[in-house]
Amino acid sequence: MTRLPGLDTLRAAAISWVLLFHSYLIGGLGDGYGVLQWSGWMGVDLFFVLSGYLIGTQVFKALSRTGTLDFTAFYQRRFIRILPAFFVVLALYELWPAWSESKGMQPLWQFLTFTFNLQYDNDDNYAFSHVWSLCVEEHFYLVFPFLAFALTRKPAAWKFTAVALSVVVGGVLLRAWLWTHLVGPNGGSVGGPDDDRGLRYLRYLYYPTWARLDGLVAGVTLAACSVYRPAWFAWVRARANLLLASGVTLLAVAIVFFMDGARSDFWPCVVGYPLVALAMMAFVAAGSGGTWFARLKVPGAGWLASASYSIYLSHKGVFMLVQAALVGRLAEHGLLRFAIYAAATLAGGAVLHYAVERPFLRWRDSQTKTAPEGAVLSN
Protein backbone atom coordinates (compact mmCIF):
# COMPACT_ATOMS: atom_id res chain seq x y z
CA MET A 1 0.00 0.00 0.00
CA THR A 2 1.42 3.36 -1.02
CA ARG A 3 2.21 5.68 1.84
CA LEU A 4 -0.01 8.73 2.02
CA PRO A 5 1.46 11.88 3.58
CA GLY A 6 -1.92 12.82 5.05
CA LEU A 7 -2.20 9.54 6.93
CA ASP A 8 1.40 9.85 8.07
CA THR A 9 0.55 13.29 9.44
CA LEU A 10 -2.41 11.85 11.33
CA ARG A 11 -0.33 8.99 12.70
CA ALA A 12 2.42 11.37 13.79
CA ALA A 13 -0.18 13.56 15.50
CA ALA A 14 -1.69 10.52 17.20
CA ILE A 15 1.59 9.24 18.67
CA SER A 16 2.55 12.75 19.80
CA TRP A 17 -0.82 13.16 21.48
CA VAL A 18 -0.56 9.81 23.26
CA LEU A 19 2.95 10.62 24.50
CA LEU A 20 1.68 13.93 25.83
CA PHE A 21 -1.13 12.13 27.66
CA HIS A 22 1.23 9.62 29.26
CA SER A 23 3.62 12.39 30.29
CA TYR A 24 1.60 12.66 33.50
CA LEU A 25 4.03 9.98 34.68
CA ILE A 26 6.86 12.52 34.64
CA GLY A 27 5.01 15.73 35.51
CA GLY A 28 3.56 16.58 32.13
CA LEU A 29 4.12 19.66 30.03
CA GLY A 30 3.24 22.09 32.79
CA ASP A 31 0.49 24.57 33.51
CA GLY A 32 -1.60 25.88 30.65
CA TYR A 33 -1.64 22.65 28.63
CA GLY A 34 -4.24 20.73 30.63
CA VAL A 35 -6.85 20.10 27.94
CA LEU A 36 -4.28 19.21 25.28
CA GLN A 37 -2.58 16.81 27.68
CA TRP A 38 -5.46 14.96 29.33
CA SER A 39 -7.33 14.51 26.03
CA GLY A 40 -4.33 12.70 24.55
CA TRP A 41 -5.93 9.32 25.23
CA MET A 42 -8.03 10.03 22.12
CA GLY A 43 -4.90 9.53 20.03
CA VAL A 44 -5.35 5.79 20.49
CA ASP A 45 -8.81 6.06 18.95
CA LEU A 46 -7.24 7.76 15.94
CA PHE A 47 -4.86 4.82 15.67
CA PHE A 48 -7.82 2.44 15.77
CA VAL A 49 -9.52 4.22 12.87
CA LEU A 50 -6.28 4.27 10.89
CA SER A 51 -5.72 0.58 11.54
CA GLY A 52 -9.28 -0.34 10.61
CA TYR A 53 -8.98 1.63 7.39
CA LEU A 54 -5.57 0.33 6.30
CA ILE A 55 -6.06 -3.32 7.25
CA GLY A 56 -9.64 -3.21 5.97
CA THR A 57 -8.48 -1.85 2.63
CA GLN A 58 -5.86 -4.58 2.25
CA VAL A 59 -8.35 -7.33 3.04
CA PHE A 60 -11.22 -5.96 0.95
CA LYS A 61 -8.98 -5.33 -2.07
CA ALA A 62 -7.75 -8.92 -1.97
CA LEU A 63 -11.29 -10.23 -1.65
CA SER A 64 -12.62 -8.02 -4.45
CA ARG A 65 -9.82 -9.07 -6.83
CA THR A 66 -9.65 -12.80 -6.17
CA GLY A 67 -12.72 -13.66 -4.12
CA THR A 68 -10.52 -15.20 -1.45
CA LEU A 69 -7.89 -14.29 1.11
CA ASP A 70 -4.54 -15.89 1.87
CA PHE A 71 -5.06 -16.21 5.62
CA THR A 72 -1.64 -17.78 6.19
CA ALA A 73 0.15 -14.91 4.48
CA PHE A 74 -2.00 -12.35 6.29
CA TYR A 75 -1.16 -13.71 9.73
CA GLN A 76 2.50 -14.22 8.89
CA ARG A 77 2.76 -10.56 7.95
CA ARG A 78 0.92 -9.49 11.08
CA PHE A 79 3.07 -11.63 13.37
CA ILE A 80 6.32 -10.34 11.89
CA ARG A 81 4.99 -6.80 12.06
CA ILE A 82 3.93 -7.02 15.71
CA LEU A 83 5.86 -9.61 17.67
CA PRO A 84 9.62 -8.90 17.44
CA ALA A 85 9.51 -5.36 18.87
CA PHE A 86 6.82 -6.39 21.34
CA PHE A 87 8.89 -9.27 22.71
CA VAL A 88 11.93 -7.03 23.14
CA VAL A 89 9.98 -4.47 25.17
CA LEU A 90 8.22 -7.20 27.16
CA ALA A 91 11.65 -8.64 28.05
CA LEU A 92 12.79 -5.20 29.23
CA TYR A 93 9.78 -4.99 31.53
CA GLU A 94 10.40 -8.47 32.89
CA LEU A 95 14.17 -8.20 33.37
CA TRP A 96 14.97 -4.53 34.02
CA PRO A 97 13.15 -3.04 37.05
CA ALA A 98 14.35 0.50 36.23
CA TRP A 99 12.41 0.32 32.95
CA SER A 100 9.03 -0.14 34.62
CA GLU A 101 6.62 2.66 35.51
CA SER A 102 5.10 0.53 38.28
CA LYS A 103 6.48 -1.85 40.88
CA GLY A 104 3.97 -4.49 39.95
CA MET A 105 3.01 -6.12 36.66
CA GLN A 106 0.21 -8.42 35.61
CA PRO A 107 1.22 -12.08 35.04
CA LEU A 108 3.43 -12.70 32.02
CA TRP A 109 0.92 -15.06 30.39
CA GLN A 110 -1.56 -12.20 29.98
CA PHE A 111 0.94 -10.34 27.79
CA LEU A 112 1.95 -13.43 25.83
CA THR A 113 -1.69 -14.26 25.08
CA PHE A 114 -2.71 -10.63 24.50
CA THR A 115 -5.40 -10.88 27.16
CA PHE A 116 -4.07 -8.16 29.46
CA ASN A 117 -6.96 -5.88 28.50
CA LEU A 118 -9.45 -8.54 29.61
CA GLN A 119 -7.70 -9.46 32.87
CA TYR A 120 -6.43 -6.22 34.44
CA ASP A 121 -7.48 -6.29 38.09
CA ASN A 122 -4.87 -4.57 40.25
CA ASP A 123 -3.87 -0.89 40.32
CA ASP A 124 -0.44 -1.91 41.64
CA ASN A 125 0.23 -3.93 38.47
CA TYR A 126 0.17 -1.02 36.05
CA ALA A 127 3.46 -1.74 34.26
CA PHE A 128 3.19 -1.95 30.45
CA SER A 129 -0.51 -1.15 30.72
CA HIS A 130 -0.53 0.62 27.37
CA VAL A 131 -0.36 -2.83 25.79
CA TRP A 132 -4.16 -2.90 26.21
CA SER A 133 -4.62 -1.25 22.80
CA LEU A 134 -2.30 -3.76 21.14
CA CYS A 135 -4.51 -6.49 22.60
CA VAL A 136 -7.56 -4.86 21.02
CA GLU A 137 -5.82 -4.78 17.65
CA GLU A 138 -4.71 -8.42 17.93
CA HIS A 139 -8.28 -9.49 18.60
CA PHE A 140 -9.37 -7.43 15.58
CA TYR A 141 -6.80 -9.21 13.39
CA LEU A 142 -8.03 -12.60 14.58
CA VAL A 143 -11.69 -11.99 13.77
CA PHE A 144 -11.94 -9.41 10.99
CA PRO A 145 -10.44 -11.36 8.03
CA PHE A 146 -12.87 -14.25 8.57
CA LEU A 147 -15.82 -11.91 9.01
CA ALA A 148 -14.87 -9.97 5.87
CA PHE A 149 -14.51 -13.24 3.94
CA ALA A 150 -17.97 -14.35 5.06
CA LEU A 151 -19.61 -11.03 4.24
CA THR A 152 -18.15 -10.94 0.75
CA ARG A 153 -19.33 -14.40 -0.32
CA LYS A 154 -22.46 -12.66 -1.58
CA PRO A 155 -21.63 -9.01 -0.97
CA ALA A 156 -24.47 -6.65 -0.16
CA ALA A 157 -24.40 -3.22 1.42
CA TRP A 158 -27.19 -4.13 3.81
CA LYS A 159 -25.17 -7.02 5.26
CA PHE A 160 -22.18 -4.85 6.03
CA THR A 161 -24.38 -2.08 7.40
CA ALA A 162 -26.26 -4.50 9.63
CA VAL A 163 -23.05 -5.95 11.09
CA ALA A 164 -21.42 -2.55 11.61
CA LEU A 165 -24.50 -1.10 13.28
CA SER A 166 -24.86 -4.21 15.43
CA VAL A 167 -21.30 -3.82 16.72
CA VAL A 168 -21.67 -0.09 17.43
CA VAL A 169 -25.17 -0.23 18.94
CA GLY A 170 -24.30 -3.40 20.81
CA GLY A 171 -21.25 -1.64 22.24
CA VAL A 172 -23.38 1.28 23.41
CA LEU A 173 -25.86 -1.03 25.13
CA LEU A 174 -23.12 -3.19 26.62
CA ARG A 175 -21.27 -0.18 28.05
CA ALA A 176 -24.52 1.13 29.51
CA TRP A 177 -25.08 -2.19 31.25
CA LEU A 178 -21.47 -2.47 32.43
CA TRP A 179 -21.47 1.06 33.81
CA THR A 180 -24.76 0.55 35.61
CA HIS A 181 -23.90 -2.81 37.14
CA LEU A 182 -20.12 -2.78 37.52
CA VAL A 183 -18.64 0.70 37.25
CA GLY A 184 -21.03 3.36 38.53
CA PRO A 185 -21.39 4.47 42.15
CA ASN A 186 -23.68 1.54 42.88
CA GLY A 187 -21.79 -0.89 40.68
CA GLY A 188 -20.13 -4.09 41.72
CA SER A 189 -16.57 -4.56 42.93
CA VAL A 190 -13.56 -6.06 41.21
CA GLY A 191 -11.42 -6.96 44.16
CA GLY A 192 -13.49 -6.36 47.24
CA PRO A 193 -14.86 -3.48 49.31
CA ASP A 194 -11.69 -1.40 48.95
CA ASP A 195 -11.74 -1.56 45.16
CA ASP A 196 -12.15 1.85 43.50
CA ARG A 197 -14.22 3.09 40.59
CA GLY A 198 -11.17 3.99 38.53
CA LEU A 199 -10.03 0.38 38.47
CA ARG A 200 -13.51 -0.82 37.55
CA TYR A 201 -13.63 1.76 34.77
CA LEU A 202 -10.35 0.55 33.29
CA ARG A 203 -11.17 -3.11 33.62
CA TYR A 204 -14.72 -3.09 32.29
CA LEU A 205 -15.06 -0.03 30.05
CA TYR A 206 -11.74 1.38 28.86
CA TYR A 207 -9.50 -1.62 28.20
CA PRO A 208 -11.73 -4.50 26.99
CA THR A 209 -12.01 -5.17 23.28
CA TRP A 210 -15.79 -5.41 23.29
CA ALA A 211 -16.04 -1.86 24.63
CA ARG A 212 -13.54 -0.26 22.22
CA LEU A 213 -14.53 -1.39 18.72
CA ASP A 214 -16.04 1.91 17.53
CA GLY A 215 -12.83 3.26 15.99
CA LEU A 216 -12.01 0.01 14.21
CA VAL A 217 -15.55 -0.21 12.81
CA ALA A 218 -15.27 3.39 11.59
CA GLY A 219 -12.01 2.61 9.80
CA VAL A 220 -13.33 -0.60 8.27
CA THR A 221 -16.41 1.30 7.04
CA LEU A 222 -14.16 3.76 5.21
CA ALA A 223 -12.23 0.84 3.73
CA ALA A 224 -15.39 -0.89 2.52
CA CYS A 225 -16.59 2.30 0.86
CA SER A 226 -13.22 2.89 -0.82
CA VAL A 227 -13.17 -0.63 -2.32
CA TYR A 228 -16.83 -1.39 -3.03
CA ARG A 229 -18.31 2.09 -3.44
CA PRO A 230 -15.41 4.09 -4.93
CA ALA A 231 -17.74 6.70 -6.45
CA TRP A 232 -19.26 7.41 -3.03
CA PHE A 233 -15.84 7.58 -1.44
CA ALA A 234 -14.53 9.93 -4.13
CA TRP A 235 -17.55 12.20 -3.58
CA VAL A 236 -16.82 12.33 0.15
CA ARG A 237 -13.10 12.91 -0.31
CA ALA A 238 -13.77 15.74 -2.73
CA ARG A 239 -15.05 17.66 0.28
CA ALA A 240 -11.84 17.55 2.30
CA ASN A 241 -12.38 20.97 3.85
CA LEU A 242 -15.82 19.95 5.06
CA LEU A 243 -14.42 16.69 6.42
CA LEU A 244 -11.69 18.48 8.34
CA ALA A 245 -14.15 21.04 9.70
CA SER A 246 -16.51 18.25 10.74
CA GLY A 247 -13.66 16.38 12.41
CA VAL A 248 -12.53 19.43 14.35
CA THR A 249 -16.10 20.21 15.42
CA LEU A 250 -16.84 16.66 16.54
CA LEU A 251 -13.51 16.44 18.35
CA ALA A 252 -14.18 19.71 20.18
CA VAL A 253 -17.60 18.43 21.24
CA ALA A 254 -16.03 15.16 22.43
CA ILE A 255 -13.38 16.99 24.44
CA VAL A 256 -16.04 19.11 26.14
CA PHE A 257 -18.09 15.96 26.71
CA PHE A 258 -15.22 14.28 28.55
CA MET A 259 -14.00 17.34 30.47
CA ASP A 260 -13.85 17.90 34.22
CA GLY A 261 -13.04 14.32 35.10
CA ALA A 262 -16.09 12.95 33.26
CA ARG A 263 -14.27 10.10 31.50
CA SER A 264 -15.77 7.51 33.82
CA ASP A 265 -19.27 9.07 33.95
CA PHE A 266 -22.24 7.31 32.39
CA TRP A 267 -22.86 9.25 29.17
CA PRO A 268 -19.22 9.71 28.16
CA CYS A 269 -18.63 5.99 28.69
CA VAL A 270 -21.74 4.99 26.79
CA VAL A 271 -21.82 7.30 23.75
CA GLY A 272 -18.51 9.16 24.00
CA TYR A 273 -16.43 6.55 22.17
CA PRO A 274 -18.62 6.53 19.03
CA LEU A 275 -18.45 10.32 19.04
CA VAL A 276 -14.64 10.27 19.15
CA ALA A 277 -14.59 7.60 16.44
CA LEU A 278 -16.72 9.78 14.14
CA ALA A 279 -14.33 12.69 14.60
CA MET A 280 -11.31 10.52 13.79
CA MET A 281 -13.17 8.95 10.86
CA ALA A 282 -13.58 12.40 9.31
CA PHE A 283 -9.85 13.09 9.64
CA VAL A 284 -8.87 9.74 8.11
CA ALA A 285 -11.31 10.20 5.22
CA ALA A 286 -9.75 13.59 4.51
CA GLY A 287 -6.25 12.10 4.58
CA SER A 288 -6.95 8.92 2.63
CA GLY A 289 -6.10 10.18 -0.86
CA GLY A 290 -7.26 12.51 -3.59
CA THR A 291 -7.38 15.57 -1.33
CA TRP A 292 -4.98 18.42 -0.56
CA PHE A 293 -4.74 17.15 3.00
CA ALA A 294 -3.74 13.68 1.80
CA ARG A 295 -0.86 15.24 -0.16
CA LEU A 296 0.24 17.53 2.66
CA LYS A 297 3.79 16.73 3.73
CA VAL A 298 4.75 17.85 7.22
CA PRO A 299 8.51 17.70 7.89
CA GLY A 300 9.33 14.75 10.14
CA ALA A 301 5.82 13.30 10.06
CA GLY A 302 6.80 10.43 7.77
CA TRP A 303 9.59 9.26 10.06
CA LEU A 304 7.49 9.68 13.18
CA ALA A 305 4.72 7.66 11.56
CA SER A 306 7.13 4.89 10.54
CA ALA A 307 8.62 4.64 14.03
CA SER A 308 5.33 5.17 15.89
CA TYR A 309 4.88 1.53 16.86
CA SER A 310 8.34 1.30 18.42
CA ILE A 311 7.90 4.66 20.11
CA TYR A 312 4.54 3.58 21.48
CA LEU A 313 5.90 0.35 22.93
CA SER A 314 8.98 1.89 24.52
CA HIS A 315 8.00 5.40 25.63
CA LYS A 316 7.03 4.71 29.24
CA GLY A 317 10.24 2.79 29.88
CA VAL A 318 12.30 5.64 28.45
CA PHE A 319 10.34 8.08 30.64
CA MET A 320 11.40 6.12 33.71
CA LEU A 321 15.06 5.96 32.72
CA VAL A 322 15.22 9.71 32.11
CA GLN A 323 13.39 10.42 35.35
CA ALA A 324 15.96 8.38 37.26
CA ALA A 325 18.79 10.19 35.49
CA LEU A 326 17.42 13.66 36.23
CA VAL A 327 16.71 12.85 39.90
CA GLY A 328 14.55 15.96 40.33
CA ARG A 329 16.92 18.33 38.53
CA LEU A 330 15.49 21.11 36.36
CA ALA A 331 12.25 20.96 38.33
CA GLU A 332 11.79 24.70 37.83
CA HIS A 333 12.28 24.40 34.06
CA GLY A 334 9.24 22.39 33.01
CA LEU A 335 9.50 22.93 29.26
CA LEU A 336 13.20 22.06 29.22
CA ARG A 337 12.57 18.90 31.22
CA PHE A 338 9.79 17.93 28.85
CA ALA A 339 12.04 18.56 25.83
CA ILE A 340 14.65 16.23 27.33
CA TYR A 341 12.02 13.54 27.88
CA ALA A 342 10.70 13.98 24.34
CA ALA A 343 14.16 13.78 22.75
CA ALA A 344 15.03 10.67 24.77
CA THR A 345 11.71 9.05 23.87
CA LEU A 346 12.28 9.60 20.16
CA ALA A 347 15.83 8.29 20.49
CA GLY A 348 14.68 5.19 22.37
CA GLY A 349 11.96 4.52 19.83
CA ALA A 350 14.46 4.98 17.01
CA VAL A 351 16.79 2.37 18.52
CA LEU A 352 13.96 -0.17 18.73
CA HIS A 353 12.72 0.74 15.25
CA TYR A 354 16.08 0.46 13.47
CA ALA A 355 17.51 -2.40 15.50
CA VAL A 356 14.46 -4.67 15.66
CA GLU A 357 11.29 -3.54 13.89
CA ARG A 358 12.72 -2.39 10.57
CA PRO A 359 15.06 -5.37 9.92
CA PHE A 360 12.19 -7.79 10.44
CA LEU A 361 9.91 -5.78 8.14
CA ARG A 362 12.58 -5.75 5.44
CA TRP A 363 13.08 -9.49 5.80
CA ARG A 364 9.33 -10.06 5.61
CA ASP A 365 8.94 -7.96 2.50
CA SER A 366 11.91 -9.63 0.83
CA GLN A 367 10.30 -13.02 1.47
CA THR A 368 6.83 -12.07 0.26
CA LYS A 369 8.03 -9.92 -2.65
CA THR A 370 5.34 -7.35 -1.89
CA ALA A 371 5.48 -3.66 -1.25
CA PRO A 372 5.74 -2.50 2.36
CA GLU A 373 2.52 -1.69 4.12
CA GLY A 374 1.27 1.81 4.77
CA ALA A 375 2.79 2.19 8.23
CA VAL A 376 0.04 0.64 10.28
CA LEU A 377 0.38 1.19 14.03
CA SER A 378 -0.53 -1.90 16.02
CA ASN A 379 -0.85 0.36 19.13
What is the strand and helix layout of this fold?
Layout: H1 5-22, H2 34-38, H3 42-66, H4 71-95, H5 108-112, H6 116-119, H7 132-151, H8 157-183, H9 197-206, H10 214-228, H11 230-237, H12 240-258, H13 266-287, H14 292-295, H15 301-306, H16 308-326, H17 334-368
Describe what you observe in this structure.
The chain has 379 residues and is an all-alpha fold. The chain has one domain. It contains 17 helices and no strands. The chain has helices at residues 5-22, 34-38, 42-66, 71-95, 108-112, 116-119, 132-151, 157-183, 197-206, 214-228, 230-237, 240-258, 266-287, 292-295, 301-306, 308-326, 334-368. The two termini are 19 Å apart.
Features:
17 helices; mainly alpha; 379 residues; disordered C terminus
- Unreliable segments (pLDDT under 50, ≥5 consecutive)? 189-194, 370-379
Q: Alpha-carbon distance between the termini?
A: 19 Å
Quote the average pLDDT.
91
Number of DSSP helices?
17
Structural class: mainly alpha
Largest sheet, if any? none
Using DSSP, what is the number of strands?
0
> How many discrete structural domains?
1
Regarding quaternary structure, what we see is single chain
- Rounded to an integer, what's the Rg over CA atoms? 20 Å
* Residue share in helix: over 70%
Give me the strand/helix succession. HHHHHHHHHHHHHHHHH
Which of globular, elongated, flat, extended, rod-shaped describes the shape? globular
The portion of residues forming beta strands comes to under 5%
How would you summarize this macromolecular structure in one to three sentences?
By secondary structure, the chain is an all-alpha fold. It has helices at 5-22, 34-38, 42-66, 71-95, 108-112, 116-119, 132-151, 157-183, 197-206, 214-228, 230-237, 240-258, 266-287, 292-295, 301-306, 308-326, 334-368.
